[in-house]
Amino acid sequence: HFSRALLELFPGQTTGKDSRDEIIDLMIISPGKEDDDAPPSAAATADDDDALSRKRPRGEEEEEKTKRTRVDESVAAEEAKAKSLNENNKNNDEDDDNNNNNRSGGTALIRGLPSRWDERRFRLALHEMRVTGHTKVKKRTGWTHAFVTFNFPKERDYCLKKLQERAKQQREEEEEEKEKEGKSDAASAGGAMMKGGASSKGWKFGKKVTMSEARDKGGKNSSNNEEKKEKKKTAKTEARDAVCPLWNVKYSEQLKMKKAKVRKALAMVTELVGKANEKFKRNNTNNNGKGSDVEGEEETEQWLKDASARKNKRCCDLVGIVRSPVLEGYRNKSEFTIGNNNQGQPTIGFNVGLFREGNVAIGEPVGCRNISKVAICVQEAAQKYLRDVAGTEDALPSWDKRNGSGFWRLLIVREGGCAPSMLGDSNSNNDNDSNQNCAAPAWRKWLRLEEGERDEDEEDDNAEVTVNGIDDAEDALSLDAPTPKENSEVMVVVQINPGKEFEAAKMEKALKGIRDAMETAASAFKPESFFITVQLRQHNELVSNMAAADAHTSELVVGDRNTANNKPMVICEHMCGLKFSLSHSAFFQVNTAAAELLYALAGEWASPNGNSLLLDVCCGTGTIGLTLANSVGKVVGLDIVEDAIRDAEKNSKLNDRTNCEWIAGKAEDTLDVVLKKYGEDVKTVAGNTNEEEGSKDEHEEERRQQQQKREFLYDDVVAIVDPPRCGLHKKVLNALRMETRLRKIVYVSCNPESMAQNCVELCALRTKNMGPPFRPRKAAAVDLFPHTAHCEAVLVLER
Question: What confidence category does residue 80 fall into, taking pLDDT thresholds of 50, 70 and 90?
């Protein structure tokens, strides 16, 4: 059936059985003698049925059906033989492996496989190569690669050795074919048809040829094919396309795209909560046809009705998007991968392709508009050193993911005090007596709306916000890129693999050489030189560049100035009038100027009167809580990571914040503890709210009157959350929902889609024991990542 489609593309072919095998070989159905038994993929069969709409005789269909059944039985039998052989070999090698039982063979990535193969077919191929000892094989139809996990390293090495021998054999055969192709055009055409097919030496891996490529070879859509090739070539050579894909898009257009992304997420909240409510009602209807008693059902149905009637069906008003004040070089932390480019030269930059597709080339950060000038200076100096010593006895190889070897792995550049402050002098503003965030007015200056966007259905509470429309000249309105200042600090971390194959003296000499190159470049930097404050090395022998949490980290060069002066391995960043001590792995917003606006907006919405008890849930190192400490009455930070809590305490002492408290523990356990401790000091928790009206108990009434006369320290309880891209854990969401004393949540999200998913748990109808649902009140988009598709969102939920 499939060969007919190819015959339409290659009308010059004959129609006998031999020609059918020859055409299938073009599609790389390895190995030779098993070709007829290779099961076709479901996707390929579906595509062929669409391509050939004409019907075939019934007898022919029955014959092919019988043949496919025979193929499945044959493959299953071969698979059983392979499993049996593996078990026998394992038993025979058991004694040899007693000393290596604690060592895993790891997982190997095998590329260049036929896309039609499924896992069964690939297992047969391994069996034919006498490869044993694999515990897990993963191969899907459509993949040109597979993953194989082995028991022990020697079994993995044997498999890779066999594959390398097969690849070498294939190259030799291809060279012979090229020599034959040069003799005549006819021989050339015939050699191309047989490439990747059967041979007298058995099966081999071949070049993947798809239906579209076969059609293009036939002369159709050649111009379109050239365009696709050019696009693919650009994607593999330009790092800026991978790091900042919107580098050539006007910033005004970027703002519109990101605002639409957040608007879509708000509409998703309406849709998901509505569906969740319908499901809840179906599952909680009693025998009388009435639903169970659910708290907040009427209010929830009302806001859903209002949202459905609103333009774009968003769950609440979107006040606009706060643009980034800085567009060029705004990142205060850059992580460069060290490897080789397409020409094999040592390069420091970014991956420009997917490893699973066999692309391990590194592209230089040329045209990456989000990378700072300081980071580029350090990167260029380090790269120049690696290229200068390449080919000499001092050269050390870069890390190669394919075989897990190499010395140079990663270059991290972190900066502090380089970004412009939205508060003026970021070092002089430390007024603890102020109850208002002095950065609050700043975010309105950078708030943008599209012209004519404000509708009649906008709520009155946003009417006082005066904003500008998105201007086509937004690029020209930006502040200057961050540059080193007198109090700026720079940290450089070089990640290496200190393998046993590298001599210690040679490693130290190389590290000293790259250190000297970076320092020389920093001293010559224009317009003003800078000093590399902290220089570190990090050891990483894992497969991934993500080092372990306890990875060895020390001074870059043994006996360096950092050790001599006992200087801590941290730098300071300034934001919202505060200082933050940052280690090489500490989380901090990469766009300092835009982060000031984000936290100013979140603080104003969290506590308009500046007298709330703020719960910083999943607080990390306390960045949000500390920046909002002047905007609220009290900050209590909660986090399950004890190291993060210790860092938050250090930052609190560094800035003399006395109204902050940090607690280590799970949110579901610590929320109740905190509110029991401070509950009597909170107005809405202590009892002078409408929820206690109607109590006929004399003692309760007397207590309520006494509480009305007393003065409370805090007006209400507000939680602020800033989760990672995956969103909040369900246990945290349930803890927030079940804590009825909590009346407001300010959700800061770097992924609006996951935020919408979390809102279902917080806003949809649930049973009474889960607490009343929240209602979305207002939202805003904040652009912290210009020239990328990412965007922050701030959403206020109340009940």
Answer: low
CA dihedral 2, 8, 11, 16 (to 10 degrees): 30
Total Cβ atoms within 10 A of residue 281 = 14
Residue 538: pLDDT band (50, 70, 90) is very high
The answer to whether 556 and 536 have CB atoms below 8 angstroms apart is yes
For residue 273, give the nearest of 634, 665, 666, 773 by alpha carbon: 773
Cut 0.85: pTM above it: no
- How many residues can be counted in the chain? 799
Q: Residue 230 — φ and ψ, nearest 5°?
A: -65, -40
Amino acid at 181: E
Q: Are 630 and 436 in contact (CB under 8 A)?
A: yes
Copy the structure tokens of residue 366.
Answer: 């040329």
CA 794 – CA 747 distance, rounded (Å): 6
Long-range contacts of 108-111 (CB under 8 A, 24+ apart): 108/147, 108/148, 108/149, 108/150, 108/156, 108/159, 108/160, 109/145, 109/146, 109/147, 109/355, 109/356, 109/402, 110/145, 110/146, 110/147, 110/148, 110/163, 111/144, 111/145, 111/357, 111/358
Q: Which residue intervals of 345-490 are DSSP H helices? A: 373-389, 440-445
Cβ neighbour number for residue 389 with a 10 Å cutoff: 18
Out of 10-19, 60-69, 402-411, least confident range: 10-19
Average of pLDDT values for 686-705? 52
Q: Which two tokens stand for residue 742?
A: 């909590």
Sign of the torsion formed by the C-alpha atoms of 591, 594, 598 and 600: positive
Say whether pLDDT at 194 is over 50. no
749 beta partners: 793
- The rounded distance, in Å, linking the Cα atoms of 238 and 343 is 14
What confidence category does residue 305 fall into, taking pLDDT thresholds of 50, 70 and 90?
very high
> What three-state secondary structure class fits 486?
coil
Radius of gyration of the chain (CA): 32
Q: Which CA distances in Å does 114 have to 122, 127, 554? A: 9, 16, 47
Task: Look up residue 360 and give its amino acid.
Answer: V
